[in-house]
Every structure is written in C-alpha cells, then in structure tokens.
Specification:
With 412 residues, this protein is α/β, with parallel strands linked by helices. The protein has 19 helices and eight strands. The chain has a domain of 189 residues. It starts with 14 loop residues before the first helix and ends in a 5-residue tail after the last helix.
Length: 412
C-alpha cells in the first residue's frame, strides 16, 4: 500500500520503547501479569479489535492508533491447543470432523482473543467451480501426500528429461490442459448465481517451483553448466504462467486491461540461489508478472520467503522488483528489510518457533524489538516471519495483543 506520509518523516512511539534497556523488564512484567490472570494477559479486547481494523487500512498511516496485528492462527494450531493427536490428513479430508474441531477451537478463541478465527463450515461444493489444473500439472509434477502435507514429485531428473518435458509443455494448449471437461456447463450454472470463476494471482515462486520439478542441486548446476537450457526452463515457466492467468481472466469475462491487479509469490527456496543466479532465473519471472499484473504503485506485489534470503534484498526494492508487501524469514530484521524495501508493508518478524514453543518473554521481546525498528517509518504488520505452526497458543496470541496495546500504540 502506498504511504500517505513523507518517507523521511520521523514518527513517535511510547517512551518505554525508546529505552532499549527497558525491554526485558517490560516483557517480564507483562508475562507476570498474564500468569496472575490464569494465562490471560490484561487486554481491552473490544478496543484492540476496533483499533486493529483502523490500523490495517494503511499500516504506514500517520493517524493509525497502533501497530496492526497479522496473526490470525490457522488449522495447524488446533492440535496442541485442543490436546489432539496431529492428523493433518483427516483435518483436510474429513469435513465433519474438521467442522467439529474448528468449532471447539473457535469457542476457545472467542473467550481468549475475542474472535472466532477459523472457518467452521466447508464451502458448499455446489457453490464451487470444478478444480482447475495448476502450473505443476502443466509441468507433470504430481502432488503426493507425504507425512503431514502435499509435496510435488519431480517430473524430470536429468537434462534430457527436462528438455523432453519442456518440448511437451510447449506443445500443450493451456486452455484445454487446465480446464476440466465439465467446465463450460458448470460455468453457466454458477455464473447464473453470480459466482465468477477463480482468478490466478498466487503461485509457488519460480525457484521453489523449478526445484520441485527438477530438483534443488539439478537446477543450480543447470544454471551454471547449461545456462541456455536453464533460460529456456525459466521462459517456459513464465509463458505458461501468463497463459494460465490469461485463460482464467477470459473465463471470468475480463478484458486484458480490466483484469483485477496484484500477484503473490511464495518462494522459500529463493535463498538457495546466490544473487547472480536469482537475477538470472527467478527475477525475470517476477519482473514480467508484476509488469503485467501489478503495474500500478498500489497494486499488490507480494513475496513470502521464510528463509535466509537477505542476500537477495537489493533485487527486491525500488531499483528491482519494488515489492510492496513482504513476509521474510526470521534471520532478517525489520531495519534490514526497510533499508532495501522502503515502500513495503513488512509482515513479520516474530520467529515462528518462538511462537510455537510458547516462549512468552521472547515473544514480547521480539514484538518490542520490531515495533522499535518500525517506529520511524511504520509499515509493520506484526506477525510470524513465516508459517504459524502447531504449538502456537491462543494465550500467546493474546499476550502479543496486550504488548501491542500497551507498548505499540502510536496515539500517545
């Protein structure tokens, strides 16, 4: 989101945050108060959520009341919170049980943080379009359940297999490839109810995707030893992405210049390429997609990479991709990200395992640290620097909310 203030203007925060030596004492005091209240940190819930709504309108805004909170928990958190054995497959595939679990979780969440956080009822299948194939399907990479989630299986294991795969991809009619046989009739039925087809505005990032299709080491050596083949791989990924987006825009009835803007990437593996290789392989894909789908200054240009990818920061700012919304790994600080991405809303930088291990004092210290580093320019949405994992507790979320309400207000 575009800032409404001079990016060089200094903004103020409560004096307690300006004294870094006072952080530990402040954190311990708040934890002690929470423990004295059966784990419930002191908090005006109604005021917090009202102020949070205002804060999210523009995290850079000069008149927002407090640091916005990005933590909203998720399905992964239900097991530890409810004392259940982890069974992600059942949670995703047993709708009746999932509804029961989410309702029980929400009952607890409503009492502790004042909101029901999880969707309780699955979407009515009669209100959904039939599944459209994704980029991985076009590249013949099958999703397989492994452990606790779906993983993509490699579809090429050496250069010869990759070149043959790219030949097959080049020959595919993307519309025929991605749309299911019953698409036309279902589209007529659902559009009569005012339900538009889904658009394509989010993708596993190009480095993570390519390493899933071809292998981690394989891609690195391909870029080094066979740059012409790597360039072809890159360019075919980009072309297919643009084709998928175009087809689904057309199915939703949008002309090319009228399609809703914005695009998001999730590219944890970008950290595995050095800056030179990333600029060669990943950067051109994001650059072209953003040029097409996020040309405006306020169009969403988002990247999630919860990895140690600080070496890529120079490519992500105004002289490069000009990202305006980011969620990077916990090895990076708010100050480091802000130095290279001055216009980006930073979602972070709480270490996910600090949260999931319920390290209460450290949770507050990381919150205070990030709010202090964001004090001058704002633009922080406090949340985890990556995924929110099982073990993350509702009382921990409330503790962070209390820290924001006590120390993260901008209006005093």
């Amino acid at each position: 989101m575009e800032s409404e203030h001079d990016p060089h203007e200094e903004l103020t925060m409560p004096a307690v945050l300006q004294d870094l030596s006072g952080h530990t004492a402040a954190a311990r005091q708040l934890v002690a108060e929470a423990h004295a209240r059966d784990g419930l940190a002191p908090l005006d819930l109604e005021r917090f959520w009202a102020d949070d709504v205002l804060a999210h309108v523009n995290p850079f805004g000069v008149d927002i009341p407090q640091v916005p909170l990005g933590i909203r928990m998720g399905l992964d958190c239900v097991f530890d919170e409810l004392g259940l054995e982890e069974d992600y497959h059942r949670l995703l595939h047993d709708a009746e049980w999932s509804t029961e679990v989410c309702r029980a979780y929400n009952d607890k969440a409503e009492r502790i943080v004042g909101k029901r956080l999880l969707r309780e009822q699955p979407r009515d299948p009669k209100q959904k379009y039939p599944a459209v194939k994704g980029l991985h399907d076009v590249f013949e990479a099958r999703e397989v359940w492994h452990g606790q989630s779906y993983w993509l299986n490699q579809s090429a294991r050496n250069t010869e297999e990759l070149e043959a795969l790219l030949d097959r991809v080049d020959e595919r009619d993307i519309r025929r490839c991605i749309l299911p046989p019953n698409w036309a009739e279902e589209k007529v039925r659902l559009q009569a109810r005012g339900i538009l087809p889904p658009l394509y505005r989010d993708q596993r990032g190009p480095v993570t995707f390519a390493m899933s299709v071809f292998g981690v080491e394989n891609l690195i050596f391909l870029c080094l030893d066979r740059p012409e083949t790597a360039a072809r791989f890159r360019d075919v990924i980009l072309r297919v992405m643009l084709d998928i987006a175009r087809v689904l825009d057309e199915e939703a009835g949008f002309e090319p210049e009228q399609a809703p803007p914005g695009f998001s990437f999730r590219d944890d593996n970008c950290c595995l390429l050095n800056a030179e290789l990333y600029e060669f392989f990943g950067y051109p894909i994001l650059k072209e997609i953003f040029n097409r789908y996020a040309p405006g200054s306020q169009d969403r240009r988002y990247q999630h990479s919860d990895s140690a990818m600080g070496h890529l920061l120079p490519l992500l700012g105004p002289q490069g991709l000009n990202l305006n919304c980011v969620n990077f790994g916990p090895t990076l600080s708010v100050s480091e990200i802000r130095a290279y991405c001055p216009g980006a809303v930073i979602h972070g930088q709480l270490a996910p395992f600090t949260f999931s291990r319920n390290q209460e004092e450290d949770m507050i210290l990381e919150c205070l640290r990030d709010m202090e580093q964001a004090r001058a320019k704002r633009g922080l949405v406090f949340t985890t620097a990556g995924s929110i994992n099982n073990g993350s507790r509702l009382t921990g979320m409330r503790l962070i909310m209390a820290a924001i309400q006590r120390f993260g207000r901008y209006d005093r």
